[in-house]
Write a structure and sequence with these properties.
The protein has nine helices and seven strands, in the order E-H-E-H-H-E-H-H-E-H-E-H-E-H-E-H. By secondary structure, it is an alpha/beta fold. The protein has one domain: Rossmann fold (3-Layer(aba) Sandwich), CATH 3.40.50. Helix 1 runs parallel beside helix 2 (about 50-60) and helix 7 (about 150-160) packs parallel to helix 8.
C-alpha cells in the first residue's frame, strides 16, 4: 500500500474533514487515490452524517461506504470498547485484509485512524500498530490553539519511537482572521494560534503542510495547503 496515514493529536481535530478534502484534491490532480478508515465509532451503521458517508461524498469516490470503512459502531468509545459493547470483536487479520482489497483498486490510499495514535482497536492492538504495519508516511492533524505544541510534539515523538516517517502537520480549524508569525523576530503581541505553527516547526523539525480555517463550507483546500509538496510526496511513492 502507498499513500499517507492520517492521525490526529486528539479526537475531533478534523481528521475526516481533512482526509476527504485531501483525497478530492489529489484526485483532481490526476492521482488515483482512495480512502480507508478501518473503524469508526460514535455513529449508527446507516447514519448519513457518519465519517464514512462524509469521506465518500466529499472525496467523490465510487467505493461503497462499507469498503471505505470496514467496521462501524454506535457507542462513542474506543473501537475496542465500542465493539465490546455490541458483543463483537475486531479480528485484526480480517481488518487488514479488508484494507488490502480496497487498496488494490487504487494507486494510493489515505488511511484515516480513529482518535489519536494511541487508541485501542483490539485487546492487544492500538492505532500505532496499524500505522506501523502499513508503514505509510504520517500526516498529523493538530488543533490551532493553546496546548497544541505539547500535543503535537508528543505525537511526533511517539511516531518516531515506532520508526515511522512523518510527512508533516496540518493546523486545522483556526479563525481565519489570524495572521501567522513567519520568524521569531516577528513575535511580539502574537496569539498562540499565530505562533504555534512556527514553534512546532522549530522544536520538532517537522514541516507544516497546511493551515486551514474553521469553515465547513470549504471543499477545495488547495489555497490552504502546500499543494506542490503534498503532490510531490505522493508522487515520490508512486514513481
Amino acid at each position: 500500500m502507498k499513500g499517507f496515514f492520517i492521525t490526529g493529536t486528539d479526537t475531533d481535530v478534523g481528521k475526516t474533514w481533512f482526509t476527504a478534502r485531501l483525497c478530492r484534491f489529489l484526485r483532481q490532480n490526476k492521482i488515483d487515490c482512495g480512502i480507508w478508515k478501518p473503524v469508526q465509532s460514535g455513529f449508527p451503521a446507516n447514519a448519513s452524517d457518519s465519517d464514512r458517508s462524509i469521506l465518500k461524498d466529499i472525496a467523490q469516490l465510487d467505493d461503497s461506504i462499507d469498503e471505505i470503512c470496514s467496521m462501524t459502531f454506535e457507542k462513542t468509545l474506543t473501537p475496542f470498547l465500542a465493539a465490546k459493547a455490541e458483543g463483537k470483536t475486531i479480528d485484526w487479520q480480517t481488518l487488514m485484509s479488508h484494507g488490502s482489497l480496497l487498496a488494490n483498486k487504487h494507486d494510493c490510499m489515505l488511511v484515516e485512524g480513529a482518535g489519536g495514535i494511541a487508541v485501542p482497536i483490539t485487546e492487544n492492538k492500538m492505532m500505532i500498530d496499524l500505522a506501523v504495519e502499513l508503514n505509510l508516511p504520517v500526516i498529523i492533524i493538530a488543533r490551532p490553539g493553546l496546548g497544541t505544541i505539547n500535543h503535537s510534539i508528543l505525537t511526533i515523538d511517539y511516531l518516531k519511537q515506532h520508526g515511522l516517517t512523518i510527512a508533516g502537520l496540518i493546523m486545522n480549524g483556526y479563525d481565519n482572521t489570524h495572521e501567522f508569525a513567519k520568524s521569531l523576530s516577528e513575535i511580539k503581541n502574537w496569539t498562540s494560534i499565530a505562533t504555534n505553527p512556527l514553534l512546532i516547526e522549530l522544536f520538532s523539525n517537522q514541516q507544516i503542510l497546511g493551515k486551514i480555517p474553521l469553515d465547513n463550507d470549504i471543499v477545495d483546500i488547495s489555497d490552504f495547503i502546500d499543494r506542490k509538496k503534498l503532490i510531490n510526496l505522493m508522487n515520490d511513492q508512486l514513481n
